[in-house]
TrEMBL record:
<feature type="transmembrane region" description="Helical">
    <location>
        <begin position="376"/>
        <end position="395"/>
    </location>
</feature>
<keyword id="KW-0472">Membrane</keyword>
<feature type="transmembrane region" description="Helical">
    <location>
        <begin position="238"/>
        <end position="254"/>
    </location>
</feature>
<feature type="transmembrane region" description="Helical">
    <location>
        <begin position="194"/>
        <end position="217"/>
    </location>
</feature>
<feature type="transmembrane region" description="Helical">
    <location>
        <begin position="310"/>
        <end position="334"/>
    </location>
</feature>
<keyword id="KW-1133">Transmembrane helix</keyword>
<protein>
    <submittedName>
        <fullName>O-antigen/teichoic acid export membrane protein</fullName>
    </submittedName>
</protein>
<feature type="transmembrane region" description="Helical">
    <location>
        <begin position="171"/>
        <end position="188"/>
    </location>
</feature>
<feature type="transmembrane region" description="Helical">
    <location>
        <begin position="266"/>
        <end position="289"/>
    </location>
</feature>
<feature type="transmembrane region" description="Helical">
    <location>
        <begin position="103"/>
        <end position="125"/>
    </location>
</feature>
<dbReference type="InterPro" id="IPR050833">
    <property type="entry name" value="Poly_Biosynth_Transport"/>
</dbReference>
<keyword id="KW-0812">Transmembrane</keyword>
<dbReference type="GO" id="GO:0005886">
    <property type="term" value="C:plasma membrane"/>
</dbReference>
<feature type="transmembrane region" description="Helical">
    <location>
        <begin position="401"/>
        <end position="422"/>
    </location>
</feature>
<feature type="transmembrane region" description="Helical">
    <location>
        <begin position="346"/>
        <end position="369"/>
    </location>
</feature>
<feature type="transmembrane region" description="Helical">
    <location>
        <begin position="33"/>
        <end position="54"/>
    </location>
</feature>
<keyword id="KW-1003">Cell membrane</keyword>
Amino acid sequence: MSELRVGQQATAGPAPRRAHRLGWLLGQLREPYVQLIASQMLTGAVAFAANILMVRSLTPTHRGEVALLLQVTYLATQVLLLGTERSFVATYHNVAPAPAVKAYAKLLLIPCAVGLAGAVLYTAVAPHSHNPGPVLVAMLAWYTVVEASSLATRSIAIAVGRVRDFMMCRVIESALLLVMLAGLYATHASHPEVWFLAYLVAGAVPTIVYLVVWLRLPPDPAAVPVRHEQARMVRREGLSLFPAAISNMAMLRVDRLVIPALASTAALGLYTSVATMTELLAWPLRAYADSRLGRWRAAHQDGTLRAAPIVLAAAVYTLVAVPLVAGTLYLLIVPVFGHQYAPAKVVVLPLVIAAGLYALSRISLGLLIARGHGTLVSAAEITGFAVSFAVYLLLIPRLGILGAAYGSLAGYGACLLFALVASRLVKDRSHV
C-alpha cells in the first residue's frame, strides 16, 4: 500500500506543477506592464506595416510630408497635456474609471479650447506662404486633441486598473488604421493629406467609444475616493514635469522638423523609414516604467524601493536587443522598402544604439519621478534636447541624415547620463 501511495504521488506530482506554472503565466499576462507592452508592440507592428505601405505608395518627399504632419501633432499634443500624463498615474492610483475620466477631462478642457482657438487664429492671420490652408490646419488641430485624449486614456487605464480596456482600444485603432491604409495603398492614393486623415479617424473612433464606456460603468465601492486637492497636485506636479514632456518629445521629434529645413523632405523620408522602426526598441521599457510608477512611489514612501536591480535588468535587456534589432533592420531595408531607400542603411546602427540609451533613460527617469524629483527629470530631458539640437544644427548640413542620427545618439546619451548622476546624488543625500 505504501508503494502504491508513493507511485500515486509521483504520478500526480507533475500535474500540480504544470498547473502552477500555467497559473503563473496567466498571472503575468494580466500584469499591466505586459498588457501595455502588448498594445505598444501591436501599435509598432502596425506602424511597421504602415511604413511599408507608405514608402511603397509615396515618394520620399511625400513620405516626409506625412512624417512632418505627424511630428507637429505629437509635439502639440504635449502642450495640451501640460505634463499631466505621468503625474496623473502617480496621484489618481486605484480610483474608479468614471471619476478618473471626469477629472482628466477637466484638466484638458482649457488647454484643448485654447489650442483649437489658436488654430482658428493661425488660419486667419498666418501669411499665405506659411499657411497650409484651413482644412489641413483643422485636421492637425483635431488630431492633436484626439492624441491628447488617447494618451489621457492610457494614464486613466493605468491609474484605475483597466489596462486591458486600453489594450483593446489600441487593437481596434490598429485594425482600423491598417484597413484604411491598405485601402489607400490598393487605390494608389498619392496625396499625403489623405494618409494623414486615416490616422485621425483611426485614433478618434475607439478613443471616444471607450471614454463613453468608462463613464457609464457603475460605481466601484472598493475604489479610492477622489479628493479635490488631487487635481491641484496633478497640475502642480504636471507643470514641474511639463518641461520634461516637451523636451522629451522635442528630443524624439525635432529631428523630423530640422531635417526638412537643413536638408530636404526626401531626406526626412529616408530617415523616418528607419527611425520609426528603431523607436520600437524603447517601448517595452517605457511601458514597464509607466505601469510601475504608482507602485514605485508607494515603495519609496515605505522605504522599500530598490532602484539598482531595476536599472540592471533594463541594461541587460538593452544589451541583448540592440545588436538583434540593428542586424535585422540593416538586412531588411532594401528587400522591404525598396532600392530607393538603400541610403537609409547608414543611420541604422547609430539610431538603434540611441534607442537603447533612450530606453534606459525611461527607467531612470521613472524612478526619479517616483521619488518626487520632477524638477530633476525636467532638467535631464532639457539637457538631452539641448545636446541633440546643437548636434543637429552642427552636423545635418554636413552629413545629412547621418548627422541627425548622431544628434539623437548624443542627446539620448546625455539625458541618460544626467539621470544616472542625478539618481546617484539623490541617493547619497538621502543616506546623509
